[in-house]
Amino acid sequence: QITLKESGPTLVKPTQTLTLTCTFSGFSLSTSGVGVGWIRQPPGKALEWLALIYWNDDKRYSPSLKSRLTITKDTSKNQVVLTMTNMDPVDTATYYCAHRAYDFWSGYPREFDYWGQGTLVTVSS
Amino acid sequence: QSALTQPASVSGSPGQSITISCTGTSSDVGSYNLVSWYQQHPGKAPKLMIYEVSKRPSGVSNRFSGSKSGNTASLTISGLQAEDEADYYCCSYAGSSVVFGGGTKLTVL
What we know:
The complex is a heterodimer. Chain A is an all-beta fold. Chain A has strands spanning 3-7, 11-12, 18-25, 34-41, 48-54, 59-61, 69-74, 79-84, 93-103, 108-115, 119-123. In chain A, a hairpin with a 4-residue loop joins strand 9 and strand 10 (108-115). In chain B, 0% of the residues lie in helices and 46% in strands. In chain B, strands 1, 3, 4, 7, 8 and 9 form a six-stranded mixed beta sheet that branches. Chain A binds chain B through residues 37, 39, 45-49, 52, 60-63, 96, 108-113, 115-118, and chain B through 1, 3, 32, 34, 36, 38, 45-48, 51-52, 57, 89, 91, 93, 96-103.
């Protein structure tokens, strides 16, 4: 059974750096073909993909946010960490992490099939 | 890259069928059969309903179906039920990145 859970601060000040942790179970990021992504959703707005990391440490970032994002993994702790620098009130959102496999047969990544419950981060002074 | 284009809202009566469109470009929807659809109820995490354009995960009702033509993907829900009322998001692989749609609010009248 795959589960994911996000954790981190609920409130950050403008210009600060946000650090979020995704702790998961039911799979390992040391297993070939496994990936974890981050997606956010401002209140009342749409989903926005942020970043992905795969078992082989391949990392992908949203082009529009790439300069502010860093994604890392700790396979021993079953965790993925996302940092976002220079936070702004427009970054207020619920942040989700999700499992995403890589299909070796097709050579392409697959869908986000398991999601965490999300964590709301508010950016305010 | 820009978000995929979805209608802001659709509605239908119980028992009817509705279709939600998702329009992208030749760099995302048009180039890959890697469109997925997510259902999101208020205050809940998104739930995968369709993947690889038309495949249903185990446990998802066969009332949900997906298709694609050119740069536009579609989600069809047949035999609408009250529990289908939710927000729906499409998502596409876009080369080295991922793009979501703007979301569609489905109202069951």
